[in-house]
Design brief:
Elements (H helix, E strand, L loop, with lengths): L27 E9 L5 H16 L3 H16 L9 E6 L1 H5 L4 H5 L5 H5 L64 E7 L2 H15 L5 E10 L25 H8 L1 E7 L5 E14 L1 H15 L10 H11 L45 H5 L12 E2 L2 E4 L4 E9 L2 H5 L1 H6 L29 E8 L2 E8 L7 E11 L2 H6 L4
Helix pairs in contact: 8-9
């Protein structure tokens, strides 16, 4: 009997961009952000330029899979295979406007949030005024061309004109800044990443219709002892990733109704949300220390250091090594720390009140996993960044709909009785909305006690300071490889 719930699709891997169905795992990544210039023959010339870049550099899913096979074979054979760079291309709605004809564009305007841009969703996303249009960033850690200009047309050093070594970067007043396109270059080697970035920039700079805005560098952090990827808060990453292609297709793929492959087969792309989030380590330390102080009178642990780890896990929903609170056999104690089973499927059906994992723990607030219907799952492809005085996360998510998947997540993180303990941001410009003044107070209901005698006690987020600050972002569409390499439309 045919399963009607399955997403029936036969998608050749050469038609889909890489890093969508499976993360590429590269350590270094540069995002080159571009603004199109108004020139004679604009649409035609831009299409020709981008088509040439796509044909030469863009990575397909099939190429990524072949590279993975070659890499694993080399490891088995004791070789020294160099993984290929992974290149992605995406466009904002204003960028797509300058590439598609009006008939094709109408079929891309179904997602209202993409059409309006991230700036129009600032209140819902708790961004409160910060955006890359009015924020000056530090130079990237491994890129020589990461510059913003002030409205006076000077760079951060107070120099006018263009920075040396960055030919083609536009001097645009920040209030006029608009991103049309990005190219992402990822590599396992820092030097190769920079060289490939420069090579692609040089190729693009030959077109008068391309203006470079800035380059944002990212680096994948790894634990020194385990070599596992970890977040800026030192939590191991890569858990709960969706691997089933059928499930991924349902959550990711947007049918390109304005384009057909030469064989007559439909093609697909996906929407991408890019958000630069500065993470305030001092605020994280304050929250953990405050929670440890509240836990000490009532929680028994087997090791002195495990109380701090337990406090971090209550805020995140997992221990730093990835073990979910939800799979523990006992409500409290060092048993949570076991590494067994952290890759197994789990849900919160047996913990409806949050006696093991608080309802406001970050991973539970974002993905309730079986405790309620969840149609909001997104696929994360983020990477950390480190700059001179700041560090944080380049949050990147992929989804079929920004309207129906991405933006509703922010409603969930602000749920009044179990506000997301990590991702929630209050409005610093409105003291009536600042943690913990909001009514009812946003709080984390933490399990306290020993053995099976558990009670839930409210933990108010201390200090009223936000853990993250939004430093810029937008919504993008990643078209199919077939479309970018042909630019054929109905």
């Amino acid at each position: 009997m045919k399963n009607s719930k399955r997403f029936q699709i036969n998608l050749p891997g050469e038609l889909l961009q890489a890093n969508i169905f499976k993360p590429d795992g590269r350590k270094y990544r540069n995002y080159v952000f571009i603004r199109f210039k108004q020139i004679d023959g604009g649409k035609t010339q831009l299409r020709q330029t981008i088509k040439k870049i796509a044909q030469k550099y863009l990575t397909s899913q099939s190429q990524q899979e072949l590279d993975t096979i070659n890499y694993k074979k080399s490891i088995r054979d004791g070789g020294n295979y160099k993984s290929a760079s992974i290149i992605n291309i995406g466009f904002t709605y204003p960028g797509m406007e300058q590439l598609l004809n009006s008939a094709a564009l109408r079929n891309l305007t179904i997602d209202r949030s993409f059409r309006n841009g991230m700036r129009q969703s600032q209140a819902r996303l708790q961004d409160y005024g910060d955006s890359w249009q009015d924020h000056k960033t530090e130079r990237g850690s491994n890129v020589d061309c990461d510059w913003f200009y002030s409205e006076s047309g000077t760079n951060e050093a107070g120099e006018s004109g263009q920075p040396s070594g960055c030919p083609g970067d536009e001097k645009i007043d920040l209030h006029l800044r608009r991103v049309d396109m990005f190219i992402s270059i990822a590599s396992s080697d820092d030097e190769i990443c920079v060289k490939k970035t420069t090579e692609i920039r040089d190729a693009l700079s030959k077109s008068p219709g391309i203006g470079f805005l800035f380059t944002q560098a990212g680096v994948r952090l790894r634990n020194a002892a385990t070599n596992k990827a970890e977040s800026p808060l030192s939590f191991q990453e890569g858990f709960s990733d969706i691997s089933d292609k059928d499930s991924l297709a349902r959550r990711l793929l947007v049918k390109e109704r304005w384009h057909l492959y030469s064989s007559g087969a439909p093609t697909y792309g996906t929407y991408l949300a890019f958000r630069k989030l500065e993470i305030h380590q001092d605020e994280w330390k304050k929250r953990v220390e405050s929670l440890v102080g509240q836990l000490k009178p009532t929680v028994t642990t087997k090791k002195d250091e495990s109380l701090e780890s337990y406090a971090k896990a209550l805020l995140m929903g997992r221990f730093e090594n990835g073990t979910p609170l939800a799979i523990s056999k006992e409500p409290l104690g060092h048993e949570y720390w076991t590494s067994e089973g952290k890759d197994l499927p789990f849900n919160y059906r047996d913990d409806p009140a949050g006696a093991r994992c608080p309802l406001g723990a970050h991973v539970r607030a974002m993905n309730p996993q079986g405790s309620e219907k969840n149609d909001l799952e997104i696929v994360r492809r983020g990477i950390s960044y480190q700059e001179e005085n700041t560090a944080g996360l380049l949050f990147v998510s992929l989804q079929k709909s920004i309207d129906d998947q991405f933006e509703p997540l922010f409603d969930r993180m602000a749920a009044p009785f179990h506000v997301d303990a990590i991702a929630y941001r209050s409005n610093p410009n409105d003291p009536n909305l600042k943690i913990p003044a909001i009514s009812p107070e946003p709080q984390l209901q933490i399990p306290t006690g020993t053995g099976k005698e558990i009670s839930l006690k409210p933990f108010i987020l201390p200090g009223g300071e936000n853990l993250t600050t939004f430093r810029g972002g937008d919504y993008f569409y990643l078209p199919s490889v077939a479309f970018l390499c042909t630019f054929s439309v109905y």
